[in-house]
Specification:
The chain is of the alpha+beta class and 413 residues long. It has one domain: Cytochrome P450 (Cytochrome p450). The chain is 46% helix and 10% strand. The protein has 17 helices and 11 strands. The strands form 3 sheets. The protein has a 6-stranded mixed β-sheet with strand order 1-2-3-9-6-4. A hairpin with a 2-residue loop joins strand 7 and strand 8.
């Protein structure tokens, strides 16, 4: 049986409207053939039930070195625009025993008690950022993305991993570059080289001057006698933790704040005690997940999804994590509406199954602290542009704002 897919879609690398695109794909079947940058074909899964079933099962793998013939044979290489998402060797791109081994290295640091213990550190960063916002002239527009949403998670993750101050600008640049989906092959290869070089520099620095940080802990594990952690796995784990530990939280804070400002009646529910900041965060995760598509999974066996769709062994699969929360089959009651009183806010924003995001609780805690402080300090804050005019990052991987301009208080006079 050959797969019958009457529809093929070139995924919009500029991400003009990721939600409309996902809704369009959802109507065409349980999985739809799409074209990624570089002409790579994959199956897009936008239906929540199908995505959850695949993520919970064993029919998909994450390791391109084992499961993707085009990568194994070199037909897709390091100059592919999305190569950084499969070239690393971390818990993100491994399966079974290797995944368990690599996840165990960092999982204890993100347990409930360890995360809660970070609250004072997070609160101190937030306090400093909010105090800086107070210096803005009344009525002048302020970019919350640049001055709150972005610096909070990036500062925290760099602190946790001991990134020296002089290395932080380059670290942020190379991590941000991974998220662009319109890069040329030359740009993609240069970006990947820069990414590995930045992490290798951090490792070299911490080997020379170790500290009380997670990078030093990983290096000690790597250099211990009998260690099974390779140097490439060490650097790949840093790429994952420093990158994922900041970008998703930036987007979560941005989108939650933007949604509350665009829907003052929902913000009023929180201020009146009828809803909580956690309600707002969960509803934002459902409606505006920080990640839209996360490359890549691979079929480890033929997968018959019905409706004439057969995914062959070795074919790439792109799970649309950000599409699940708006799936009308999962949320039949106004799936595109922002409603803090919604009793069911189920989503796949942080993944599902064995690859569920380790840092989910930390990201939610950061968002809660940032939003609480922002709206307490500036009760009159409002958007400086209409919601529909907010600029989005040109990436189908992340669901991100480029800027979040607001007025913190009414104009003087």
């Amino acid at each position: 049986m050959e797969p019958r897919c009457p529809y093929a879609h070139v995924l919009d690398s500029r991400a003009t409207d990721v939600h409309a695109e996902a809704a369009h794909l959802r109507t065409h079947g349980p999985a739809v053939r799409v074209e990624l940058p570089g002409g790579v074909l994959a199956w897009s899964v936008t239906r929540a039930e199908v995505a959850r079933r695949l993520l919970a099962g064993r029919q998909l793998g994450k390791d391109a070195r084992r499961h993707w013939p085009d990568w194994i044979d070199g037909r897709v290489g390091l100059d592919w625009p999305l190569a950084s998402w499969v070239a690393v060797e971390s818990m993100f791109t491994t399966d079974d025993e290797d995944h368990h081994r690599l996840r165990t290295l960092t999982a204890p640091s993100f347990g409930p008690r360890r995360v809660e213990a970070l609250r004072p550190q997070i609160r101190a960063i937030v306090t400093g950022l909010v105090d800086d916002l107070r210096t803005a002239a009344p009525g002048d527009p302020v970019d919350l993305h640049a001055r709150l949403s972005y610096p909070l998670p990036t500062t925290l993750i760099c602190d946790l991993f001991g990134v020296p101050d002089d290395q932080r600008p380059e670290m942020r640049r190379v991590v941000d570059g991974v998220l662009e989906t319109g890069a040329t092959p030359e740009q993609a290869k240069a970006g990947l080289d820069d990414l590995f070089a930045a992490m290798a520099r951090l490792v070299a620095t911490k080997r020379e001057t170790p500290g009380d940080d997670m990078t030093s802990e990983l290096i000690a594990t790597r250099d211990a006698s009998g260690s099974r952690l390779s140097e490439h796995e060490l650097i790949s784990t840093l790429i994952l933790m420093i990158g994922a530990g900041s970008e998703t939280t930036v987007n979560l804070i941005d989108h939650t704040a933007a949604l509350l400002l665009a829907h003052p009646e929902q913000l009023a529910l929180i201020l009146d005690g009828a809803a909580t900041w956690r309600d707002a965060i969960e509803e934002a995760l459902r409606l505006e997940a920080p990640v839209m598509h996360l490359p890549l999974h691979f079929a480890v066996e033929d997968i018959d999804l019905g409706e004439g769709v057969l995914i062959r062994t070795g074919e790439p699969v792109l799970i649309a994590y950000g599409a699940s929360g708006r799936d009308p089959e999962l949320h039949p009651d106004r799936p595109d509406a922002f409603d803090l009183t919604r009793p069911d806010k189920t989503n796949l924003a942080f993944g599902h199954g064995r690859h569920y995001c380790l840092g989910a609780a930390l990201g939610v805690l950061e968002a809660e602290e940032a939003l609480t402080a922002l709206f307490q300090a500036f009760p009159d804050v409002r958007l400086a542009v209409p919601e529909k005019e907010l600029a989005h990052q040109e990436s189908f991987i992340v669901n991100a704002l480029r800027a979040l301009p607001v007025h913190l208080s009414p104009a003087a006079g």
